[in-house]
Backbone:
């Protein structure tokens, strides 16, 4: 399979415009489109072909409220770790679209999966969770290609979320995603746009050893 220059340029645009979304419209996401994006996510590589990702759609209002309560609790604690102007800047940030997003997806790693027979993770068991991250990123890119926004919420309590969603004991939360049509679109990261931090040039350096 070969890809032409036009495709490669468009792919670069997709990577650049894949941004964390926190402001969503209320209109629903087409179910067929959602399932298509999830199917593409499941094409992601996984250590030993373990396929440890487990996607859970959170539709029940009470379960959603429990997740929102966890976020608000953690967000308040996080704000208090900063002082003065930095704390004020933190409070001004919109860090989740939990109330607006029509779709909530909790993505877990099944750490007890027998799939793959343990291949490739004897010395790096964390590769299971990294495999789930590749699926999250695959879903994110697929959704963005169809004009759907995704926001990754990390300011929550993983054990609390897992408990409220009543998932198996061996599942570990990797990502909690808000999904929906974005109110606005930007190429630059929101935290850059709102003055939290500029891009770190050192992070782009290729080190030689």
Residues:
């Amino acid at each position: 399979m070969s890809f032409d220059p036009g495709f490669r340029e468009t792919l670069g645009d997709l990577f650049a415009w894949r941004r964390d979304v926190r402001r969503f419209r209320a209109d629903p996401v087409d179910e067929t489109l959602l399932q298509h994006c999830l199917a593409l996510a499941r094409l992601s590589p996984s250590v030993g072909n373990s396929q440890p990702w487990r996607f859970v759609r959170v539709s029940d209002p009470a379960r959603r409220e429990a997740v929102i309560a966890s976020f608000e609790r953690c967000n308040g604690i996080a704000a208090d770790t900063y002082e003065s102007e930095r704390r004020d800047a933190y409070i001004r940030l919109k860090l989740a679209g939990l109330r607006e997003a029509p779709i909530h997806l909790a993505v877990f790693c099944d750490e007890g999966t027998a799939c793959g027979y343990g291949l490739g993770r004897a010395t790096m068991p964390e590769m299971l969770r990294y495999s789930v991250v590749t699926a999250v990123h695959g879903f994110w890119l697929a959704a963005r290609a169809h004009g759907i926004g995704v926001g990754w919420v990390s300011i929550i309590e993983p054990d609390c979320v897992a408990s409220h969603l009543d998932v198996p004991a061996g599942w570990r939360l990797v990502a909690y995603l808000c999904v929906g049509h974005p109110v606005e679109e930007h190429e630059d990261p929101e935290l850059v746009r709102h003055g939290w931090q500029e891009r770190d040039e050192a992070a782009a350096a290729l080190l030689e050893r």
User: Anything to note?
Assistant: The chain is about 40% helix and 15% strand.
